[in-house]
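RECORD TYPE: inverse folding
INPUT: structure tokens
STRUCTURE:
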């Protein structure tokens, strides 16, 4: 039987980490975050820092787990080995039907939205473009892991470079630096402040979403014991720095008041100080960014379905590795097909809500798996240990619980959020009979 090949190097993993995160979030969410904290620049910057810090805590925790168990499947394997096959299956189930597929669908819709800024598309052309983009990424990832990784490296370097260039231009021409200092304070206090901060965290974590995807491809990483800790630490620090620079550049360009009012802050800032042509430059940057993020999800997530199938609790076909391309081709094609269907189901924001809420249930659970796995590995020399143990994973797990709890709290007062939470939990519960079906099938086979 053909196996996956270790072809992803440290540099590839670093690009994958960064490229998985930089999608459309940094170009659109800063204005939303400012509104959620009532226009307080100081509080909004704190949200970006805390969100990056939370991602760093999780990344360092996952780096130990990936280095100790460099197996295809990542978080699925950590949850399985730490807490059993049922929660692991539920994670894989949610990844398939909501988290990965929903992320790709949301990114594909964002792709057509910004392509429309460059060339006007009719409704059917927009739908066809979304599906075509997913098809291209699917074909590349069936074709070869090395080819997909090379594509990821190039597109990540381009989009990160364009963010730096845009930020430098906005700093050079913008004239609202003094306005930033005047808007640093907040008039919120107590529970209202905490709730607003928690809601803003949901939005900022969309911008940071994707750093965990690199663990799924651990079975194809060369020297994973060294690669994961270095790539995850450097990638986290780079992203926090890049995001803070970009947000400050937007504020210098148009000021806090205008930034709070816009849903397309990068394009608004660029047009305001550079001219109308700059809006198309931003749209082109986002196109490259979104395409790169889509490729990173397709490069990594199918490895979870591959691992589930190898455990005989998912479709057997998904455990097959293509004899020529050395990729889990069936798993890649399945994810691409489902994501294409989801592009026709709901607006961009609705897709994102479900992805974030469901994902953080399992991100926290995977982080908590380090405790039973440390006991399991007692006496074994681990290639990397997370710094600050046990507080690093504890803080990450507590933050995950707080994010999920805040989403549930908001559902009690917001009918739209209530529908999202109910739908997400419904999908989670629906995975239980599916799991029982596969378990029974495994026993009788």
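DESIGNED SEQUENCE:
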């Amino acid at each position: 039987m053909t196996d996956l090949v270790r072809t992803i190097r440290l540099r590839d993993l670093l690009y994958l980490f960064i490229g998985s995160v930089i999608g459309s979030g940094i170009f659109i969410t800063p204005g939303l975050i400012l509104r959620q904290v009532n226009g307080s620049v100081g509080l909004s910057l704190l949200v970006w820092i805390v969100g990056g810090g939370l991602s760093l805590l999780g990344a360092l925790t996952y780096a130990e787990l990936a280095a100790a168990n460099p197996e295809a499947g990542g978080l699925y394997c950590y949850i399985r080995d730490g807490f059993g096959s049922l929660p692991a299956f539920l994670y894989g189930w949610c990844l398939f039907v909501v988290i990965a597929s929903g992320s790709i669908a949301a990114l594909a819709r964002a792709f057509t939205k910004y392509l429309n800024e460059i060339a006007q598309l009719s409704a059917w052309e927009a739908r066809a473009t979304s599906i075509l983009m997913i098809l291209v990424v699917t074909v590349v990832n069936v074709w070869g892991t090395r080819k997909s990784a090379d594509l990821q490296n190039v597109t990540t370097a381009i989009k990160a470079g364009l963010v730096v260039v845009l930020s430098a231009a906005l700093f050079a021409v913008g004239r609202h630096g003094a306005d930033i200092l005047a808007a640093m304070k907040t008039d919120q206090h107590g529970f209202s402040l905490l709730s607003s901060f928690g809601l803003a965290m949901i939005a900022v974590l969309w911008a940071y979403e994707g750093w965990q995807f690199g663990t799924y491809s651990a079975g194809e990483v060369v020297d994973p014991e060294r690669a994961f800790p270095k790539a995850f630490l450097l990638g986290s620090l780079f992203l926090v720095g890049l995001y803070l620079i970009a947000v400050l550049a937007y504020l210098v360009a148009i000021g806090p008041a205008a930034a709070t009012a816009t849903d397309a802050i990068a394009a608004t800032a660029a047009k305001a100080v550079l001219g109308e042509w700059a809006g198309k430059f931003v749209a082109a940057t986002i196109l490259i960014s979104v395409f790169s993020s889509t490729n990173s999800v397709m490069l990594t997530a199918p490895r979870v379905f591959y691992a589930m199938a190898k455990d005989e609790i998912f479709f057997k076909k998904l455990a097959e590795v293509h004899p020529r391309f050395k990729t889990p081709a069936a798993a890649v094609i399945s994810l691409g097909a489902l994501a294409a269907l989801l592009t026709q189901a709901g607006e961009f924001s609705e897709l994102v809500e479900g992805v974030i809420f469901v994902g953080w249930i399992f991100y926290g659970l995977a982080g908590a798996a380090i405790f039973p796995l440390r006991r399991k590995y007692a006496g074994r020399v681990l290639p990397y240990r997370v710094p600050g143990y046990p507080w690093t994973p504890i803080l990450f797990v507590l933050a995950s619980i707080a994010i999920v709890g805040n989403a549930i709290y908001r559902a009690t007062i917001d009918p739209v959020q209530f529908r999202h939470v109910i739908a997400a939990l419904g999908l989670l519960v629906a995975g239980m009979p599916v799991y029982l079906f596969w378990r029974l099938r495994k026993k009788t086979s």
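NOTES: The chain has one domain: 10-444.
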